[in-house]
Amino acid sequence: MTSFNSIIAAVAVVGLLLGHGANAQEKQWTKITIGTEGSFAPWNYEEGGKLKGLEIDLAEDICRRAKLECSFIVQDFDGLIPALNVGKIDAVMSGMSATAKRAEVIAFSQPYATGGQTFGIQKGGPLEALPFKGELINLNDEASALDKIEKLKAALKGKTIGVQAASINASFLDRYLKGIVDVREYKATTQHDLDLSAGRIDAIVASYNYILDAAKKPGNRDMLTAGPRFIGGVFGNGSSIGLRKSDVKLKAMLDEALIASFADGTYKNISEKYFGYDATPQYKR
Hints:
By secondary structure, this protein is an alpha/beta fold. It folds into 2 domains: 6-114 and 237-275, Periplasmic binding protein-like II (D-Maltodextrin-Binding Protein, domain 2, 3-Layer(aba) Sandwich), CATH 3.40.190; 117-235, D-Maltodextrin-Binding Protein, domain 2, CATH 3.40.190.10. The chain has helices spanning 2-26, 54-65, 80-85, 142-156, 168-176, 189-197, 208-214, 248-263, 266-275, and strands at residues 31-36, 39-40, 44-47, 50-52, 69-74, 91-92, 107-108, 117-122, 136-138, 160-164, 182-186, 203-207, 223-231, 242-243. Strands 9-13-8-12-10-11 form a 6-stranded mixed β-sheet, with helices on both faces. Strands 5-1-6 form a 3-stranded parallel β-sheet. The protein has a 3-stranded antiparallel β-sheet with strand order 2-3-4. This is Octopine/nopaline transport system substrate-binding protein. Residues 1-24 form the signal peptide. It comes from Bosea lathyri. InterPro entries: Solute-binding_3/MltF_N (IPR001638). Keywords: Signal.
């Protein structure tokens, strides 16, 4: 009897789960809540009590196209994926790269930016002469990338590098420069900028577009990019909208809206406004 009751209970649970799954698939999306960090200019930032940035303008455009009412919640970067998976938010737009590790727990839209990651340093410092300045190194070609990273290690040995916690840049340092550099993690990128300008760290690793924008701000006038730009590998396929794996219909709606924005030049105008160049990615219709 106990065994029979257990079977019935198991079937009931499965039925509930299947019913829940069916309801999730049939959901008619009319509004969504988007999580963003709100302190990662030019991607997303607060100014005068309002959210601004490339991702804010892009979200407004794709929400209009998808006929969605969209609102934003500001959340620490390392809490965005947990907030998504517990249902506090429905999407993430926060300069989040679509990496293989993150794809184990969430889904991603079509990428909308692939600017790469690089080193930020202070003008006149010892790291200004880092090799491979401006060169694009694709970590998907790891054999070639490792040869160049070995050449970087001599200049970086013993240096203190600032990085945002739970970021792809933290993963990069752990994988390729562990034991070579001292890593200091920060809750927000603006915090490592302050330590860099004060000379408490030797460099940062961050988004190329982020560093270009940060260098325009008071207190960061001596900030420069140094060394190569990295793409691929631990850095993933570029910044994308993070979504729950179960929300297949919402992903399709947002992908369609993104591609339409790329195709008619709207995204080009948005990226030129915030990045200073056309960052329209390659895409498939």
